[in-house]
Structures are given as structure tokens and as C-alpha cells.
Amino acid sequence: DARAPVEGHAASGNRGGGTSVMTRQGQAVVNSRVADSQQEPVVAANDARSRTHGRYEELEAYRGIAALLIVVFHAYQFSRQGAGLTRYVYEGTPLHVVFHNLEAAVAWFFVLSGFLVFLPFARAAIEQTRSESARGFLIRRAIRILPTYYIAILVVWSWRYAGIPGQWTDLIEHLTFTHIFDRRYIFWTIGPAWSLAVEVLFY
Q1: For residues 53-72, average pLDDT
Q2: Which of 48, 75, 78, 170 makes an SS bond possible with 188, Cβ 3.0 to 4.6 Å?
Q3: pTM for this one?
């Protein structure tokens, strides 16, 4: 009889110990969830801050993909001349359908460029903050575009110059980005340069 209370006490002690362990485990889970819930607003705030003051890196990546597809399209366009053929390299195959319709990436590129270029000005107007000056914007774009463009145009034009009537007009129009208004010379010198002229005039 004397042992019964002792055994009962021991059993009670074991149950108490198990409850204590479960309590500590439960508290650890709660603490972990609380920490996660505290981190979520921080992550969201950082993401919002990057969207507000940074660039849309995902859209920049898509813009790069569109530019690459345009390069592939133009390369395929000139594949007949490069291979000395009278028809496209993959004409009559599914690859021809794919390559021949990559020109759709031009519209894709224009839409993304228009959005990304105009974004800082639109954001400044919405937030009622001071935007970048038009002069500063144009200077940065000119430094980025004009040197490479002019070198490419002058090198290709000089290499292809043969004294044909209209070549000097073609050069002037390409240097002033006005060849897109002249159906005779829009594709002279460097054919794909028309798309850059459209973008520059959009600026």
C-alpha cells in the first residue's frame, strides 16, 4: 500500500515531463512562425522598394531576348546571300516558319523599350517628385547610341561605296536618322538600322 502513492507520483512525474517537452516544442514552432511573419513584411518592403526606385529586371531580360531574336531574324534574312542560294536555307521546313516570323519580336522590343524608357518620368509624375531633365536623358542616350552607330554606318558605307547616285543622300539620311522617311534608302547601308532610327525619334 505504501508503494502505490510512490508509483502514482512517479507516473504523474513522467506525464508532467512529457507535457513539458511538448510545451517547449510547441513554443519553438510558434516562435518560428512569428519570426517568419516578421520577415515577410521586410521582404515585401524590399521588393516594393526595388520596384519603386530600381529597374524591372525581368522586363529588361525579356527586352534582351527580343533583341536577340531580332538578330537571329536578320541573320536568317541574309542567309540566302551568305550561302549563295536562291531560297532560304530552311525553306520548306518548320524551322523556316519559325525563323521567318521572328520579326514579331520587333514589336515586342518596341513596347518594352517604350515602357522602360518612360517609366522614370511616369513614376516622378505620379509621386510628384522631380524627374530627370530631358537634357540629361538625351545626353545619356546619345553617349550610349551615337558613337557605335556612327562608326558602323561610316565603315559599312565606305566599304560599299561605288559612286552610285544616291549614296551620299543615303549617308546623310542615315546619319540624321531620317532614312525611315525615305522608302528608297530605308534599307540601304545597314538594313536593320531602321529600327534604331524609330527608337531614337521616339526619344
Answers
A1: 83
A2: 170
A3: 0.59
